[in-house]
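anyone else get weird line breaks when pasting these?? whatever heres mine. first is seq + tokens for prot A
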Amino acid sequence: MNIDLNSDLGESFGAWRMGDDAAMLAVVSSANVACGFHAGDPAGILQTLRSAAAQGVCIGAHVSYPDLVGFGRRNMDMASADLQASVIYQIGALQGLATAAGTRVRYVKPHGALYNFIAHDARQAADVIAAVKAVDPSLGLVVLAGSALAGWAREAGLRTIEEAFADRGYRADGSLVPRNQPGAVLHDPEAVAARMLQLARDGTVTAVDGSVVRVAADSICVHGDSPGAVTMAQRVRERLTADGITIRSFMDAA
């Protein structure tokens, strides 16, 4: 039995430090690397890619709405031509940096508001799918587990990777608790590790209302910008491996 463990990295910007990429890369099997539209500067992104290559960590393009000020967490009503070009641009930029770092981009994971919006919005979802296919149809697409996007992407011929979140609260319908509501972000490493073992073993998580929600996931995300993120990711990995579950990139498990 195996599952992927991923984190959002490359998000530091100039003097503003976000997360501990070097430490997190020693724990995860896949890294969603910022492309400069919600966070990340070229030099910092390149360093993260070099570190990931040295650790043998799989690389994904963490594409976003163009929203540096809002960290990509604000919805944007972009025209299709603009959104498609934006996603193509970001993937291409990361591909160039990855080549220089001796690695390559193998999948795409939308970030923040874009990730959540295209989980249910058919038009913007189609734009992101079209952009990924235009660059490289062999790229995987990471999607919220159980979302409409998972079906749309598969119908379009993309490989989909369904994802669960270690450090985010779930609602009874399987969606994430909005960040401005109580229970949205979880901080206790032991509690998070226990619920991810439940996810890996039973395919379920306990929602904020106490109900049990079925979540069939190929990958688990620990946000790199969360307080104590490295400790949380380490505890999740330890708990899973102690139970006989192998941590391996979803791209290697194909």
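and prot B, same format (seq, then tokens)
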Amino acid sequence: MSTNKMLDSFHEMSQTMLSTKLEKPLFYKNKFALRFELGPTDISLWADSKRENINEEYFRVASNRAASIFRSAFSQNDEINVCYQIFSDGRQKIRKSDYFFKLFSKLSGKPMVFSEHRDIYRDDLEYKRYCIKRVTISDTYTHDLDEDEIIFTLINSDFGYRGPSLLGQLFLINCTKGLVFHIYDDRGLDLAADNKQPLESIYHEQNSLLLDYDRDYMDSLFARI
């Protein structure tokens, strides 16, 4: 059985056959999606005018916002698939030494599949060896995850000197609710689904954190008249 077929098999067993595209930007790649603002606009990212020291209050607020949205999207017993991927020119690989495996070390006994995806971003790749390398961990539940450490790591994406960070993209698939959670960096977070239903209550619950730039589109999908 090919690696991709094995991955499909895992997805079928855990009822995760979503058509949601696991691509950045998740919000713009999927019809039914929400985009949230994590980094507060009223708090400076920098603690000084020379931009030499970051403002930890900015990251505290961003982390708290991400945690609040996570709690709206996940219940403790929801079934989860963890997907981590990197863009590769054929040489780069996901290695067991990558921080991803330390971050999810408690899931080391769970089913894990490595796969390649060559058409995930575009169909006209200049070189056929270009692809997405992905690892998927299944048969996992929200209570297995350390969401605080996950959020801290993802918000550090552009600021690795604050602490650990991931070089690739991390998607948490909520198989129970049928949605995908993705923190793209300290600025924001996307949720996507195959239909409106999994996102409607979150739209209302976390409305104050929606990114104003895309609010009109989200209102057109979810606002109740």
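btw re prot B: The longest helix spans residues 56-73. Confidence is low (pLDDT under 50) at residues 1-17.
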